[in-house]
Amino acid sequence: MKKLMIAVAVVLLNSWLATQAAESASLKAHPDSKAWADLFAPDFSNALAPAGVWSWKDGVLSPKDKDEVLWTKKEYEDFILDLEFNLEPGANSGVLVYCADLNNWIPNTIEIQLLDDGSPKWANIPPNWKCGGVFGHSVPLKSAVKKPGEWNRITIRCQGPMISVLLNGELVTDINMKDWKSGKKSPDGSDIVDFEPRPLAEMATKGHIGLQGAHGGIPTHFRNLKIKLLD
Question: Once rounded to an integer, what is the mean pLDDT over residues 16-40?
């Protein structure tokens, strides 16, 4: 009996270790997230939704021509977020994580930038404004965003200060917030946007998740928004 119990314990331990290994390697490929929880309910019952701005149509979530954020009611820490987005020409949007202050969210939130990088409108922006990076802070490792009108897939892994982003199968962000000790300069010496002066190293690693609205009146569309908590 004792040997059997030990054997069962070993099997369970190996299973747990395999699961942990799979999670740690999750951003080598987009996960199978079909069975994960929906980030937003169809009736927005788990959301803080500005009236008349966001709506669903045929499984696609879109904002009207207002730049108002759709937030989760719940605060999250240690999670993987998987979703698809479709940019209209010139679109500038973002997936917002770790928001610790809904009333003053811009300097108190991490924004994973969603941008139509190829638009002439954004031809002269700094590299740390590009799609898939942490807006105003980190330069994407690769350019992986598709043309407007095409669906992109993005997976965002947030575990404590560690943030990784996979965009269309390419690792574009892999940072430790603790490396951003300055609110003016990134570790690579590039300038941080002046309206986000708080060092990432000092920011919370738990908060609301949001989607930016139609910045500049240009919408970005979303679908298949799934989330899984990390152990």
Answer: 72
